[in-house]
Specification:
Length: 370
């Protein structure tokens, strides 16, 4: 794959076109700036995780989490008319160890909203160290996410996988920075997760899954992909990354993909994941990448990640890329999109993505945009 930029594309506001023979491609083009509502009343909000959305009737809801792991909810009639955010609550907040960033949601047909959070417990390497090791937990809400009942931790790294002598600025290990999607047949929820074990062989972006039928009692029901099979327990089990780290997270020159955000693309009839790529111990952003897979149950089916944006083209923290579909009539969200979607990075969108089937020509004109 390669990125093409030409005078013609530049005149159309196109910043990059990723092409490959017999594979999907994506065109990145400039769009009018759009910023997610974020948290509280602050105007300088920078997204600190993936921001999941769901529809309930004609209302669109979105969650944002600030530094420290406190979630907020906004709502509106579409992506372009979201209201000021309100703080949400868990049923076990008092005395809870660590923040909880809501990174994924699923609205069920019975009205329940299921959510999954990234947790960062304190003191994993002693109280004098600020290092943490993230975990992934589940929760459920009956009021579209204003109040959550915590269902427990469903993904956690092995107990012997911490490395407290790490050069990494934030993590000594753990499983986190993730997204979740239900397959089209409603058989399994799939978790794409960042794995930060001390063993480089288990570092990178890994995958796990849980039967849809276990959504109300999820603890102990998630299994990780390991050495060619869904064989390791979600809590304490090992994993085989689908995108292994090129250099260890625990070295000064770490090089790894992380923070996957997944959606099903109806135009391509494929699953699409965007990735960050860190290039050092401080998680400096190297660029935003895309990968495709028609079958979630085949972890080997993901295409080689290809860069769609360089770090200098980004703003703010430059982390957390995600696709958000813009067609309210089709109830598009961060989990569902058609051919044209907005690209957000750190809660800010300055781009549209145009997804192309193999051999499909790029549009010669731009549609009207908000």
């Amino acid at each position: 794959m390669k990125v093409l930029t030409t005078t013609v594309l530049a005149l159309l506001g196109v910043t990059g076109l990723v092409l490959a023979k017999d594979a999907p491609s994506v065109m990145v083009r400039t769009a009018s700036p759009l910023k997610l509502p974020g948290v509280g009343s602050t105007s300088d909000y920078v997204a600190d995780c993936n921001s999941p959305l769901h529809w309930a009737g004609s209302t669109l809801y979105i969650f944002a989490s600030c530094y420290g792991g406190k979630p907020w909810r906004s709502e509106g009639s579409d992506l372009f008319s979201l209201t000021s955010p309100q703080s949400v609550a868990y049923d076990n907040q008092e005395g809870y160890n660590g923040g909880r960033w809501i990174e994924a949601t699923f609205k069920d047909s019975d009205g329940k909203l299921y959510g999954w959070y990234h947790r960062e417990p304190r003191g994993v390497c002693g109280e004098e160290r600020s290092l943490t090791a993230p975990q992934i937990g589940a929760a459920v809400s009956t009021d579209d996410g204003m109040h959550w009942r915590d269902l427990g931790i469903v993904l956690k790294a092995p107990a012997d996988s911490l490395y407290c002598e790490t050069a990494n600025r934030y993590f000594a290990g753990g499983n986190g920075d993730f997204s979740v999607i239900l397959d089209r047949n409603k058989q399994h929820f799939y978790f794409l997760i960042g794995t930060y074990n001390k063993d480089k062989a288990e570092q990178g972006v890994s995958i796990a899954r849980m039967p849809y039928t276990d959504r109300d009692t999820p603890v102990g029901k998630v299994v990780k992909w390991y050495k060619g099979d869904w064989s390791e327990p979600g809590v304490g089990g090992r994993s085989s990354p689908i995108f292994p780290a090129a250099a260890s997270w625990h070295e000064p020159e770490g090089d790894a993909f992380w923070g996957p955000s997944i959606h099903h693309n109806t135009h391509l009839n494929q699953y699409v994941v965007l990735l960050n790529r860190a290039k050092d111990q401080n998680w400096a952003q190297e660029g935003i990448y895309v990968t495709y897979n028609p079958d979630l149950s085949d972890p080997s089916g993901w295409s080689k990640p290809v860069k769609i944006l360089d770090a200098p083209e980004l703003e703010a923290s430059k982390w957390y890329p995600q696709v958000i579909g813009v067609d309210a009539r089709r109830a598009e969200t961060d989990k569902l999109s058609g051919q044209i979607a907005r690209l957000f990075v750190a809660g800010i969108s300055k781009w549209e993505l145009v997804f192309l089937r193999p051999g499909e020509s790029a549009p010669t004109s731009q549609p009207a945009r908000h």
